[in-house]
Amino acid sequence: MIVISNPFAIADEIKIIHSLFEEGLSLLHIRKPDFSEVEMAQFIHQIKLEFRNKLVLQNHYDLAKDFGINRFHFSEKERKQNLNHPARFSKPCRFLSTSTHSIEDFNSLENDFDYAFLSPVFNSISKENYHPKTDLFEALKSRTNHKTKAIALGGIDAENIQKTLENGFDDIALLGTIWKNENPLKQFKSCQKIVHSYFQSQV
After folding, report:
1. Residue 159 to residue 28: CA distance in whole angstroms
2. Alpha carbons 149 and 114: distance in angstroms, whole number
3. Computed from CA positions of residues 162, 164, 170, 176, in that sequence, does the dihedral angle turn out positive or negative?
4. Fewest CB atoms less than 10 Å from the CB: which of 19, 81, 140, 156?
5. Separation between Cα atoms, residue 5 and residue 73, nearest integer Å
6. Whole-angstrom distance, CA of residue 195 vs CA of residue 193
7. Can you tell me the distance from the alpha carbon of 82 to that of 193, in angstroms, rounded to the nearest whole number?
8. How far is 4 from 31, CA to CA, in rounded Å?
9. pTM value?
10. 55-81 residue pLDDT tens
């Protein structure tokens, strides 16, 4: 299960992030599009060393070396315009992800990417008027790319996680359901319980 940071600064954010990791959060995407490189460095610096290997940079990639980060996410635009091309981030010591918004786009990904967000699955919680244009559950039936994990994003919450995983997604990413909740940690634990229960039932 992946959590994407709130794009905007919020109260007690670092404290909440630490609590999420302590409860077993696998990966945190740092999505702060308006942060300067200095602001991003200051933000990462506040996160405990023990959790740095679970951070994913979505911009300011040059900071990775200073902080021991080896996970990078590319927007659809970056990927298609060959900005910061993934080839620059040579594997196997790097983990790469990207964003897609159609099954055709997802299927066409090269093997560079460990996983990709496919969105929006449901009406977005964090973005107004951001709705699915196609039924991604139906679209997943046409999946040909099985080397890249398909991560559901967009409107994912405790009410629809089970349905999302049952319909072919490999995992989920949470944003609005965490940061728009008055108790982000409690909400995370509720979602985590559903995910764990689902995967245990598959064993």
Report:
1. 22
2. 6
3. negative
4. 81
5. 13
6. 5
7. 38
8. 6
9. 0.94
10. 999 999 999 999 999 999 999 998 888
What the block records as the tokens of 52 is 């740095």
pLDDT digits (tens, 9 = 90+) for 125-167: 777 767 788 999 999 999 999 999 999 999 999 999 999 999 9
Task: Tell me how long the chain is.
Answer: 203
Cβ proximity of 82 and 88 under 8 Å: no
Closest CA to 61 of 28, 23, 94: 94
Q: The CATH number of the domain where 12 resides is what?
A: 3.20.20.70
Boundaries of domain holding 94: 2-202
Question: Structural domain tally of the chain?
Answer: 1
Cα distances (angstroms) measured from residue 92 to each of 4, 96, 111, 112, 113: 24, 10, 12, 10, 11
| HSE-CB for 138 with a 13 A CA cutoff | 4
Q: Which of 170, 160, 77 is nearest to 121 (CA)?
A: 160
Q: For CA atoms 101, 105, 106, 111, give the dihedral sign.
A: negative
